[in-house]
């Protein structure tokens, strides 16, 4: 392409097909390979919850995460989400774990996805990923539990009721919401207090 004689120069299409560009593309794909650091790998592997509601609550903590920390988590998520459809599927997580030289079997990867996924669709969305990989010591503290409670308690009456849950957690059915309130409501009065909410989050 740099020849002085225009007749001897490669066209743009010929240049893109040249051996040199193939080498560049090959090297670029290597540099884009996902490499999970040990902290992220351990966080995903060790993430666990006692109920679907606890998992759903943790998935909302992303709204409170420090912007710089949140961007780092998003960047890692986007690297794993190789087809950029907004979800991490089995093959993508398997590839990411493979890059760590870890000896995870397919069933191990599936178990991790089941535990992290808050929707039951066997995929991990960004909120799920944030919940599993954020700094649990910091964001499950009383301070952040109270902030999240106030975020969900839209009318500020100091209670989270069925309407609050239905509005904020749209994937839950009415029956699931009733069961959540049966388990977690204050003295079976149909609402949660801040103290109950803190216990759910700080269960970790």
Describe the structure.
The structure is a single chain. With 204 residues, the chain is mainly alpha-helical. The chain has two domains: 98 residues, Recoverin, domain 1, CATH 1.10.238.10; 62 residues, Orthogonal Bundle (Recoverin, domain 1). It is 58% helix and 4% strand. The chain has 13 helices and four strands. The strands form two sheets. The protein has a two-stranded antiparallel ribbon with strand order 1-2. A two-stranded antiparallel ribbon has the order 3-4. Helix 5 packs across helix 8 and helix 6 packs across helix 7. The longest helix has 14 residues. The N and C termini lie far apart (61 Å). Keywords: Calcium, Repeat. GO terms for molecular function: calcium ion binding. Pfam families: EF-hand_5, EF-hand_7. This is EF-hand domain-containing protein. InterPro entries: Centrin_CML-like, EF-hand-dom_pair, EF_Hand_1_Ca_BS, EF_hand_dom.
CATH superfamily of the largest domain: EF-hand
| Average pLDDT over all residues | 82
Largest sheet: 2 strands, antiparallel
* String of helices and strands: HHHHHEHHEHHHEHHEH
Strand-residue proportion: under 5%
- Architecture of the largest domain, according to CATH? Orthogonal Bundle
Key phrases:
two-stranded antiparallel ribbon, 58% helix, two-stranded antiparallel sheet, Recoverin, domain 1, single chain, repeat, 13 helices, 4 strands, mainly alpha, 204 residues, 4% strand
């Amino acid at each position: 392409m740099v020849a002085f004689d225009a007749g001897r120069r490669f066209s743009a299409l010929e240049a893109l097909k040249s051996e040199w560009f193939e080498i560049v593309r090959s090297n670029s794909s290597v540099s884009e390979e996902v490499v999970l650091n040990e902290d992220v790998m351990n966080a995903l592997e060790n993430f666990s919850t006692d109920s679907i509601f606890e998992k759903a609550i943790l998935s909302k903590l992303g709204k409170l995460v420090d912007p710089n920390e949140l961007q780092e988590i998003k960047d890692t998520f986007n690297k794993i989400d190789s087809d950029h459809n907004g979800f991490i599927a089995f093959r993508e997580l398997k590839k990411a774990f493979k890059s760590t030289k870890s000896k995870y079997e397919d069933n191990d990867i599936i178990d991790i996805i089941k535990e992290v996924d808050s929707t039951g669709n066997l995929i991990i969305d960004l909120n799920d990923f944030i919940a599993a990989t954020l700094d649990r010591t910091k964001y499950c503290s009383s301070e952040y539990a109270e902030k999240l409670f106030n975020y969900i308690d839209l009318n500020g009456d100091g209670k989270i009721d069925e309407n609050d849950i239905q509005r904020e957690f749209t994937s839950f059915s009415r029956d699931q919401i009733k069961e959540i309130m049966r388990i977690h409501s204050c003295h079976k009065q149909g609402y949660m207090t801040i103290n109950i909410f803190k216990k759910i989050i700080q269960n970790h």
